[in-house]
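Deliverable D5.2: sample structural annotation.
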Amino acid sequence: MWSATLSFPSFVASSSALPNYKNRRFPKIKASLFNYPLASKIMVRNLPFSTSEDFLQREFSAFGEIAEVKLVKDESMKRSKGYAFIQFKSQDDAFLAIETMDRRMYNGRMIYIDIAKPGKRDFQGFSRS
């Protein structure tokens, strides 16, 4: 009978041990949509229903210049559906926001942040190939 031992690196870090992200180089994705890099738009999920666009603008502007904040709302109830899209002007700022804010507690809920995936409207009906 064969057996193997696997060891994985620990990803737990204290806030004082976090590296300086401003000097870090992130990969550049060359495609651009509406004059912004493709990977500069992020999606924030699991937001409390009481979240506002102004609050998201204030919180995420600490990571860089923001072009647009779009909080998705239920049309009939006029309240947040719990997710938003934030368009940064720089791809590096978007990556910094993802690495810093992903899986953080916000008003008792853990928020998840990822790069937004482009939809049909972003490519204006052209095929992706």
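Annotation notes: The two ends are 48 Å apart (CA to CA). The chain is about 20% helix and 30% strand.
The annotation will be released with the project's public dataset once the embargo ends.
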